[in-house]
Amino acid sequence: MGLSLQKGQALSLKKNDGAALTQVRMGLGWDSAAPVKRGLFGGLKKGAEIDLDASAIFFDASGKAVDTVFFNQLQSKDGSTRHTGDNLTGEGDGDDETIMVNLPTVSPAVAQIVFVISSYSRQTFDLVENAFCRLVDDSTPGSPEVARFQLTDSGTHTAMIMAKVSREGAGWKFTAIGERANGRTAMDLIQPAANAL
Asked: Which Gene3D superfamilies match (predicted)?
């Protein structure tokens, strides 16, 4: 289990020996809100299926968006980052969508990568439980989890600015953000993500 971060906390992406992490995976997961009782017989109604989408938005040092990775563009222009595919229901344990980043090959023009989740069907976060993002070190055998950020914020928003990785000297650092937003796709979230830089 990685370090549990609170909103606004940051962590340098280094191994125990001080070397920088190279291959990282951002896993994002969620569940539908718990089933609710219904009718005279008190049977349980199945929770709604929640179709959230994980995306990554790339910014240069001036805060200008220069690239995006999402369900309709699964790889970054520089080839460093790859989305593993769309999950339409959030069903199952663990990561529902993942984005792999090879940090040394990220374009030098990119200063920060912001990870967001959004609801294309405009489902709101009061229907969502157990939303989290976690950073996994795929450059170390066993792929240990480095950091985890658990969301406890529900509400009528349709998107969330989850976390970012940003350059820190010759390496990178991970910061938990957890800001509410509204939008269906990564394109709708460029400005809210820029506000979180």
From this structure: sav2460 like domains
